[in-house]
Request: fold
Amino acid sequence: MLKFAKKVINSIRKSAVAVLDKVSTTVSTVQYAIENPTAEGYVDSGVKILIAVVIGALLLAGLYTLFNKTIMPTVTSKVTALFNYTGK
Reply:
């Protein structure tokens, strides 16, 4: 019975050490992320991507109105074919 109790205690001790290691690693990772002044947030990246898409759409719309013809014929034909799909 004494050997079984020692095994259980050692197993609990190993589990506790593993949990403490994981918690320590997570805490240090979070602390680094919080204290890192050069980190770029997800919101900043999202705003940059959104601005790039809007500017690209405005430039493309400007080209369409400037030249009054199709600028990218491949895209136009593929979109037309997509909407004219008959299901065959």
